[in-house]
Amino acid sequence: MERTIQKKLSVGGGSWVTVDVYGEPDAPGLVVVPGVMSDAHAWSRVAGTIDAWPSVVVVNRRGRAASGPLTRSYSLRTEVEDLGVVLDEFVGTRALFGWSYGGLIALLAADDRPIPQVIAYEPVMRPFGRHALPDLKRAEEKADWDRCVEIVNRQISGFSAAHVEELRADRDGWATLRRLSGPLYAELGALNAAAPPDAMARLAVQVDLVIGRFNRGTAPYGTSFDTVRQHVAHARVHELPGHGHLAHIQAPAELGRLLDKLVVL
Locate the AB hydrolase-1 domain: which residues (predicted)? Predict the structure, then answer.
């Protein structure tokens, strides 16, 4: 489906979020919550392949253009409340889908209000990437965004130096990663500052947790996935064969088809 409108929603405290709407704007559908180092644009190809819902709303979380600033009071709770504003705007949302940090936000939102279905792709939770926070803080203080991209790929995701150099060779892609690294330290700090509840998504009727086959049982994403799973006892678990954490970039059509299959009618 094609993007039909973009909306700007005030979330209070001098900030706002924008949302990209695909399909029928007034038809209740799927709300997508991207994670760290990602924005609504990065999810356009996935949204364009989805057919099972009449609409797809992709949240551009605060801290990335064209949404507003994080603000000084930013926390994980801020993200959950921002998502609540989006859900109030799109009344009757049938499903929430969150990726990585966005998956955690979606699961926590389903503690605040009844949601028919929550789908989370490799959600992360505390402790995740805590060891990299000191280096990220120093890089942010120097506005060294190249260093931030290196840290998230090498120290947190565990990719090789060769992989980072391949990313750097794509000048436009590297520029995007530099831009998206701006809120990285604050987001990772918020993730690790919030004590998780004993259970998550308690008001969701159906919860589906998805992991890429390449990350099954391996750090950091597979092990964090296992931790999340312990907090969502009623979840169904699914695997996306042949892929890892960046399926929305490397295999958007496959990820879209998987989401279509998980729809609860």
Answer: 30-255
The whole-angstrom separation of Cα 259 and Cα 49 is: 10
Interaxial angle between packed helices 101-112 and 221-230, expressed in degrees from 0 to 180 and rounded to the nearest 10: 10
pTM of the complete model:
0.97
CB-CB contact of 192 with 105 (8 Å): no
**Confidence band of 197 (pLDDT split at 50, 70, 90):** confident
Tell me how far apart the alpha carbons of residues 170 and 85 are, in angstroms, rounded to a whole number.
Answer: 36
> Domains of the chain (ranges plus CATH)?
3-126+194-262 (3.40.50.1820), 132-180 (no CATH)
Classify residue 132 by burial, with Cβ atoms within 10 Å: 0-12, 13-18, 19+. buried
> Residue 251 corresponds to which tokens in the numbers above?
């295999």
Among 71, 42, 116, which Cα is nearest to 265's?
Answer: 116
| 143 exposure class (CB count in 10 Å sphere: 0-12, 13-18, 19+) | exposed
What is the torsional sign of CA 73, 103, 23, 2? Answer: positive
Q: Are strands 15-23 and 55-60 parallel, antiparallel or unpaired?
A: antiparallel
